[in-house]
Amino acid sequence: LALPPDFVAYLLEDGLSLAADSQAMPARIRPDIAEQMESAFTLSDEEDDAGVADARHFPELEDAMREAIESLGGAVTPKLTWSSPKDAVWMATTNDTRCQNPAEVMLLLKASDAVAYDLQDAYAQCVDASESSSAALTTGVVLTLRKWAGLSPSMEFRCFVRRGNLRGVCQRDVANFYPFLPEQVGQIEEAIAVFWQENVHGVFPVVDYVMDVYVTSRKKVKIVDFNPYGGATLPLLFDWNEL
User: Fold this and answer.
1) What Pfam families does the entry give (predicted)?
2) 47: helix, coil or strand?
């Protein structure tokens, strides 16, 4: 979905506000208690205007999101041009990037530092960067909604390709140790190397890139994403100098 400039500007605004009827958060308290709390903390009109930002609505975009979500089975994971808002999952009630309505998509995008970086500094490290190219993006920004799949973090891997050679592979979830992985390292490395050689090498249009993959229990390799080599892409268990 191509994002309109006003929505991109909204993502870059300070603050985060949700409409009263937003589906991004569940109703955690009973209505009668909510009314009591509201009456106890009523603000004057001036205080209300000064302290609470108006919730924004984008009807056409929200309708397009809703239609896409329904067509993809009712649950999606969002990605904005280059980055997925994984750093904002702490805002989600499911603690992951699964979204079932437009409000949840907008909440993750708005709360994500990775998304903000994409919009403000994505080209800053390009060799031909200039003041104009490093300015915040307002046009040409694309939102991708992919069908949600409950992938096991233990079987997600990041592959580093430098000058057309597969230089390294490591797990994406660097915060956890999975005891079964060491005994499967050989099989996993072989499966990824064969898949890359047969399906990606010589086909992908650049020679320096990072590829994220998922390996199934049958050692079938599925591409999750491609990322730029270096820059904001994390080397995870490696150092860029090692690669």
Assistant:
1) D123 (PF07065)
2) helix
Burial of 243 (0-12, 13-18, 19+ CB in 10 A): middle
Cα three-residue angle 159-140-98, rounded to 5 degrees: 55
Residue type, 215: V
Q: What is the pLDDT of residues 201-236, one digit of tens each?
A: 999 999 999 999 999 999 999 999 999 898 878 999
Tokens, residue 61: 């975009």
For helices 102-111 and 59-71, give the axis angle rounded to 10 degrees.
Answer: 110
Contact (Cβ atoms closer than 8 angstroms) between residue 143 and residue 1: yes
21 and 129 housed in the same domain: yes
pLDDT digits 0-9 by tens, 78-119: 998 888 999 999 988 888 999 999 999 999 999 999 899 888
Q: Which residues pair with 168 in a beta bridge?
A: 160
